[in-house]
Amino acid sequence: MRFENPTTTTGTMDDLSTRELIQQLQTQIEAQAQTIREQHEIQRKQTEELAALRAQQPPPELSASNRHDNNEGSHHGGPSDPLAWGKRGPSSARITNLLPFTDTIMQAHMPDKPPPVLDRYDGSADPDNHMRNFIDSMAFYTDNDPVICRAFSLSLKDDALEWFHTLPRNSIDCVP
Fold this sequence. Notes:
Layout: H1 6-56, H2 92-98, H3 103-106, H4 127-139, H5 145-152, H6 158-166
Region (Disordered): 54-89
Protein name: Retrotransposon gag domain-containing protein
């Protein structure tokens, strides 16, 4: 009487299970790779379509009063979309008239990048300390005095921002 070695039979079954498992995994990986290729193709097509649409759109026209002023949102803390920094909205001429800056400051070219994010001063702490912190932070961003002036309101909130908006038009022409 001949007995089969149970480890040999089990080993063969394990080999089959392992091979089947590997085949299933390979099939899944191939399906995932195909899905990724399809997603990349869709993304490429969308990018091309967006580029074509942008190319078809004419650039926005700027009026003489705002041709050099490309800062949307300096009135209330900057644009909500950081990519929009340096672009103007339709109400920018009205906002320009509400700000206390001289025309020289308002016509200064604003950088394409947004200013640094600063702690916003509410009027309850030492204003000299806030000014030092603001100037130090802006030194890494620009040395352009008009740009620094324009960014100042972005560092204010609550009572301090309300005070800033009470300043008369043409009353700010430099950084103190």
